[in-house]
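dumping this here before i forget
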Amino acid sequence: MIENPSREEMGQMLKKSKRIAVVGLSNNPERTSYMVSKAMQDSGYEIIPVNPAVSEVLGVKAVKALKEIEGHVDIVNVFRRSEFLPGIAKEFAEIDADIFWAQLGVENEEAYDYLKEKGYTVIMDRCIKVEHALTK
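structure:
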């Protein structure tokens, strides 16, 4: 069963975090991933687009995969369909980021169990922008 941290805990995590890698970030301003990531960027977070189909989003050069990111990543925010989460979870574990965050409507028990067994913080089916707004 998927259990998220409390809203208060999520607020603490967001206060400590600076770099967010966004898997599936679209360069289309109409898409939720773009709107949410722009709001987070406007709030002072460094956004790293992870999408092999685009070269740049929000003025930042995109990478094709998490392992192409240089330096530490605090949060990996995922905007992909739930069935892609197990593969993304394995990539996440390889780069040893702090928090795996799947957007609203996105959850996968296999990915959740895999990451929890490795001791990672996992949040699923929650909007990072909403949690940020509610816990500022």
